[in-house]
Amino acid sequence: MSNLYERFFKVTIVSLIIATIALIFLMESFYNILIQNQKYTANIIYKEILISKIMQMKHEFVPFQELIDDFKKATNINIEVYSFIHNKKNFFDYLKKIDDKGEYWHIKKDKFILYKPIKLQQSCMKCHAYSFIHQPTNPIIRKINRERILGVMKISLPLKKEKRKYYHILIIVFLVLFGALVLTMYGYLKNIDLVRKNINSLIEFFEENIAKGKYVFIKTSMNFEEFEKLKEKINYAINKIKFYRQKTIERFYYNQLTELPNLYKLKEEIKKIKKPLAIININDFKTINNTFGFDIGNLVIYAVAMELKKYQSPLYHLSIDEFAFFLKSEDEEYNKIYMEKFLDKLKKTFYINEHEITISYRCGISKVGDYILNADMAIEYAKQKRKECVFFCDIKDEIAKMKQNALMLTKISNAIKNNLFEVYYQPIIDNKTGEIYKYEALIRMKDEEGNLYTPDKFLELSKKANIYPKITKIVIDKVCEKLKQKTFYVSVNLDILDFENDEIKEYILKKVIKEDCGKYLSFELLETSDLSEKEEVISFIRELKQKGSKILIDDFGSGFSNFSYIFRFNIDGIKIDASLIKDILIDKFAQDLVISIVEFAKKRGIITIAEYVANEEIYEFVKKMGIDYSQGYYFSPPKPDVE
Fold first, then answer.
1. Which of 4, 21, 323, 409 is the most exposed place for a label (fewest CB within 10 A)?
2. What is the pLDDT of residues 345-404, one digit of tens each?
3. Are residues 387 and 480 in the same domain?
4. DSSP letter at 266?
């Protein structure tokens, strides 16, 4: 991309080339005109001499040379005649050069010389007797005979004066053209400077204003109508930008439903207003949306916003069902009493599209640190404890727990990323032979410092964070890999979350089919209150059993003891919960319950396994009760490998 001066320089060079070419053509044209004029003059002289000779011959005879000499004296024009008879050599030389047009000319030493033939006229017969020359093969002779040529006239015209005129005209034309070019260049440069001035004004305006976010109008006067129009268009665009910028700010800082300042606006205000912040949350608003639909839900939110606005200003709309405002007092006790009364006052029934909807609220208050986060944490705590109003400072233990959970979540994510999960194996002993019957696969997690964590430290948290399915896949992968190395029977625990996750179910089935390890795998299902109600659970269990896997109920008797599981799932075994086994030596109720479970299992042909067998006394007791297998630290803790 070139600038204006570079472009002007190129245009000037091109213009000079064109002007030079034009001048050359002009010089050539003038020169041709000069020659034509000389030729015309010479032809006139030629005709005048011939006419004079013819006229003179009618009266008296005067030699042709004498007539020419008189003409030369009168006009100072040199004229020569070469005849066939008196000057045969020159006659033939010049006659050869005369072309079909009947003449020949050339320029020699500032003279224009024209040669023309003198032909026999009727009047010439009076004095001259014309006789043919008999050389029929010579083209010149044939031409002389055919055209009756008597001689050749040479007319010499001086050119010096005419050339001087010619050069004077050229100089004048050149000066005129050069002057026009200079004036054009001057005007062009002048206009370029004005254009650049206008452009620089626009550039300066954009650098000083638009680039810095200042949307002001251009007021500088422009030198050209086009730049004035451009200025108007820019000012129009700036006006539009200001309008849409304001609209964007409103969209960014204000909630579109209630037109109240939103979370982003509150974050800016917190920097200036150092007062306690109260966040109010509508209780169970999700149920209102699900029951009446989103349109009614929006109307409820709007009605609540208008109600709150009556009492609090400024009021902020943070999320769909959350509002915030600053409290005037710094006193915690006063604010707690004030907010409890305020929440009671807000409780009311709204009548929206013929629906009666009663609204209640809960509140979180903070005056330290991250006001918004802390107040939200207080609200969450209030939801868990079913309280209406909670101060952030009252949940220090809860905050410590949340920080601990956050740290553990980081460890879990890091363990998944860096393959720090391991599967440990705890043997299950055959009570009749004392030999290992099979193993239970138990997940363990390491952190980067090498600390080992048992499932009770991370499994529940991983479920809340939706990381649990990844851990299930890790267990399945590592157990199947171990089965490639050694042949043994092993149990894997599955949670209700695994049965509700189609991806996990498909993953387990594909893995079992691919590795052909179904007959070595048992799956222990954790007993829960809603497990038997899930039809997909029954379907999945049926598919696992078709692949040769065994199905056991884990922690049976821990609280639900739903015997219908055994019938609905076609169970292969029952693991009696540790809470019954650990106190079985002294707890009569635990003994009676275990006896009932064992008797029922034997009648159904189902194996029983006692968990938490911690010592020899418990081991001997469960054997006497007829339990088939035992598992616990009495035999071995979980280990990284199988024996």
1. 21
2. 888 888 888 888 888 888 777 775 566 666 666 666 666 666 655 555 555 556 667 778
3. no
4. H
Going 365 to 370 to 374 to 377, the CA torsion angle's sign is positive
pLDDT tens-digit series, residues 416-469: 999 999 999 999 999 999 999 999 999 999 998 889 999 999 998 898 888 999
Residue 362 lies in a domain: yes
pTM for the model: 0.51
Domain region containing 319 = 263-394
Examine the domain organization and report whether 384 and 410 are in the same domain: no
Give the closest residue to 624 by CA, choosing from 431, 433, 436: 431
SS3 (DSSP) at 614: coil
- Measured between alpha carbons, how far is 536 from 504 in angstroms, rounded to an integer? 13
From CA 576, how far away is CA 596, in angstroms rounded? 11
Q: What digits encode the pLDDT tens for the residues 260-275? A: 998 888 888 887 887 8
Contacts 24+ apart (CB under 8 A), 506-513: 507/473, 507/476, 508/476, 508/544, 509/543, 509/544, 509/547, 511/476, 511/477, 511/480, 512/544, 512/547, 512/549, 513/547
Q: Which of 129, 158, 187 is the last residue of a domain?
A: 158
For 521, what's the count of Cα atoms within 13 Å in the CB-facing half-sphere? 30
Domain count for the chain, please give it.
3
Q: Does some domain include residue 211?
A: no
* Residue 130, helix vs strand vs coil: coil
